[in-house]
Specification:
heterodimer, A: mainly alpha, 11 helices, about 5% strand, B: mainly alpha, 15 helices, about 75% helix
């Protein structure tokens, strides 16, 4: 195995990891604070991709079109997230988690049909936006420059979430609410609004990552379940609700996927699961997770 | 309270004139209803068996499996592949279906039973999707997205009515066995794990082992459901293993009432017939199912049977109070 092939797989693994982090961070953040596992997170990602496609097609602007479409898709998903939290989830916090899970599952079914009805079963894609259309040379090997855009966006999100969670007053509240919700409420902090805010933020990230994935040429029905299963692997490996865990989990899953595809494409997902199985045997709550109470 | 629940359910069965009535009705029903509805009834019975296997884990053990359809599909694929590719005998294939589902259930369960609650749900979903993915991608072995066609039952089971009776017998026997399992000491142990797993552990019970046994039993019955369905439908497709399919037993249990043995059966019957009716005028079944889920969660917590059960109990209590006065 020559160095250039390995390096190439490694770099595409990094790009994959960045995309996974974009999606999984929103899922993990929502779960960490609300303790609600949002099955519909992948559906918001899918809907974000389809909406950005339609806006991009409508605008027909070679440079700005993609960026505007991505921002609008993120905002539309934020609005949808607000609606979902306000109308459905808010009434279910006092109930058991199976009901919460099923409610988000119901949203999955509805969004799937909505996409089927509005866009049909076609495969769609967006052209790579300027200035990320060409290739970048690294050690004399060419890489799609759009990959670096996604990696950069992933890094920005890492820094932003780190700053938000560990360096702001809101972050203090978020971390406090994740460990003892009642105590935070007793201190006079409006927990329902915090939950709404976090859910909207998570939905916005999902919409944005959906739009960002569109130029990879994979906007189609079924992309929701595909990404959510890999995101589950990410958060199970890294630890639910942990930011460093999500980062490490994304890196591992991205690399395993990238090298797995090189050996046997049919079994790429199975390789990811083998890693997950090993982690589960050694640390059932994930590498950075806390044991369940 | 738990003991009361079981006793009440038992006495309900012992006073079970209505159960005998239902069985008699199910024996004469092929001569009353049209072929279309008899086909739906067959589907409802098979799916009810899947729902019962799911509810052994959910309603009794307190663990929500979101990957039960994978075992259903495995059972179906085993029968289809053995019969079409290896020219196996129908009955042997039928036994091989649940056996293979149980073996895969043992492997998957080994990892899943280490986790509780939402983590268990995630992992079963993820493993279910993995199995789906392998079946879907392994084109020259499983037929990929084409599935497998031309799975025929033996001559004497080829007519709709005879296969209906076959499904009915398998369903009744399986339901009876599951009922016996739940009311055995083993069943009581898994119920106690739902109620308080810490205390159960303090009694010296190896929770992981008990949960694994229950997981394998559930996988076997899900596999059996798939195994008897495929020769009826004459074909199998990867869609049998998807998480949309796995959501159906979850939904049926919530709709009918997961705390009662007959809850998931009632839920699945309502869903299957509702599905057949909805397909008459729209292909957008998932959106209808989603709306149905939300309605049940918000307006019928505890499911239909749970709701009736509660009302009956309230009336009985009021009667008791009146008697005391």
């Amino acid at each position: 195995m020559s160095f250039d092939i390995l390096f190439n797989q490694f770099m595409s693994g990094i790009a994959r990891a960045a995309l996974l982090f974009l999606v999984a961070s929103g899922l993990s953040l929502t779960f960490g604070v609300l303790r609600v596992l949002n099955f519909a997170h992948g559906s918001l990602y899918m809907l974000g991709a389809f909406i950005s496609y339609s806006i991009w097609k409508f605008l027909l602007m070679p440079v700005l079109g993609f960026y505007i479409a991505a921002i609008v898709a993120a905002l539309v998903m934020a609005a949808l997230g607000l609606l979902i939290e306000f109308v459905l989830l808010r009434r279910l916090y006092s109930r058991g988690w199976p009901e919460q899970l099923l409610a988000t599952y119901a949203i999955v079914l509805m969004i799937t049909d909505l996409v089927k009805w509005a866009w049909g079963g076609k495969f769609l894609s967006i052209q790579r936006p300027k200035p990320f259309t060409g290739a970048v040379f690294l050690f004399d090997f060419p890489f799609p420059s759009y990959n670096f855009f996604v990696i950069g966006l992933g890094l920005i999100l890492v820094v932003f979430l780190w700053w938000l969670v560990y360096r702001t007053r809101l972050g203090d509240i978020i971390r406090a609410a994740a460990s003892d919700r009642e105590m935070v409420a007793a201190l006079g902090i409006p927990i329902p609004w915090l939950f709404t805010l976090i859910f909207v933020l998570g939905s916005m990230i999902a919409g944005l990552s959906g739009a960002v994935t569109a130029p990879f040429g994979s906007v189609a029905l079924g992309m929701d379940i595909e990404i959510i299963v890999e995101c589950f692997a990410v958060v199970v490996i890294g630890g639910m609700g942990s930011l460093p865990g999500t980062l490490l989990g994304s890196f591992i899953v991205g690399q395993v996927y990238s090298f797995g595809i090189m050996f046997k494409p049919e079994l790429a997902l199975a390789f990811i699961f083998m890693v997950m199985a090993v982690v589960l045997i050694i640390r059932p709550w994930g590498i950075f997770g806390r044991p369940e109470r | 309270m738990l003991q009361n629940q079981i006793k009440e359910e038992k006495s309900l069965l012992q006073r079970g004139w209505w159960l005998i009535l239902l069985i008699v009705l199910s024996l004469i029903v092929p001569f009353i209803i049209t072929e279309f509805y008899l086909t739906i009834l067959c589907e409802a019975l098979v799916m009810s068996l899947l729902a019962l296997s799911f509810n052994l884990l959910f309603g009794y053990m307190g663990q929500l499996s979101f990957g039960q359809a994978a075992f259903y599909g495995l059972g179906g694929y085993t029968v289809a592949m053995l019969m079409t590719k290896a020219q196996f005998n129908f009955w042997l294939s039928l036994i091989a279906g649940p056996v293979l589902a149980a073996i895969i259930g043992l492997i998957v369960g080994f990892f899943c039973v280490r986790l509780r609650g939402i983590y268990f749900a995630i992992l079963t979903l993820a493993f279910g999707e993995l199995i789906f993915f392998i079946v879907f991608k392994w084109h020259n072995f499983t037929g990929g997205d084409d599935g497998i066609q031309g799975v025929f039952p033996p001559e004497f089971l080829k007519s709709l009515i005879s296969y209906y009776y076959f499904i009915l017998i398998v369903f009744l026997l399986s339901a009876f066995i599951l009922w016996k399992i739940i009311h055995s000491p083993f069943g009581q142990t898994i119920i106690s794990m739902r109620e308080n797993s810490e205390r159960t552990e303090f009694l010296g019970i190896n929770i992981a082992r008990y949960q694994l046994i229950a997981f394998v039993i559930a996988a076997a019955f899900a596999g059996l459901a798939g195994a008897i369905w495929v020769p009826f439908y004459r074909s199998v497709a990867p869609s049998y293993l998807t998480w949309i399919k796995s959501g159906e037993p979850v939904m049926a249990a919530i709709l009918g009432g997961p705390s009662l043995f007959f809850g998931p059966i009632l839920g699945m019957f309502i869903m299957t017939f509702f599905h057949a009716w909805v397909l008459g005028f729209t292909v957008y079944w998932p959106v209808v199912m989603g709306a149905l889920i939300l309605v049940v969660i918000f307006f019928l917590p505890g499911g239909i049977l749970g709701f009736i059960h509660e009302k009956v109990n309230q009336r009985r209590e009021r009667l008791n109070q009146l008697m005391e006065k």
